[in-house]
Amino acid sequence: MSLDAMGNLGDFIGGIAVIVTLLYLAAQVRQNTGSVHAASRQDVVESFRQWNRQIYEIDGLVEIMQAGTRKYPNIAQPDRMKFVSFMADHCLHFQSAFALYESGALEEETYQAYLEFLVGQLATPGGVEFWSEYRSMFPDRMSAAVDARIEAGDLPNVLELPSYQLD
Fold this sequence. Notes:
mainly alpha; 78% helix; elongated
């Protein structure tokens, strides 16, 4: 075999090795992306669990939420601040879900469930007032998505849920 032929064979084998390496790296990136997406989704779920759990762990928050969703801002000042903080936490949680959805890391069905629950809160009389006051505190694209869902109508009525019923 001539030196030229051997050189060509070496180039050919080297080219195949590069292709195999690229395929391996692509598979590794795909696997890593899947792991990052799964971890991100888990973080959003845990964030929601923490947000939801505080309703029952913080003394008096159930009553503040019940009053706030109906009468905010016409509730006592300390309760107003707790209601605002609680609603802002909910919006921040959704902000995380929205970012994951936009990046492709959160599937449509899960995104829609989080969106529906948030707009259900924001569609209450107190939620409407909260959103009109604090909407500008959140990213424009997220706020626009929330506004579009609210404008679409047929909103869930969280006030009909047992936990929102007044005694």
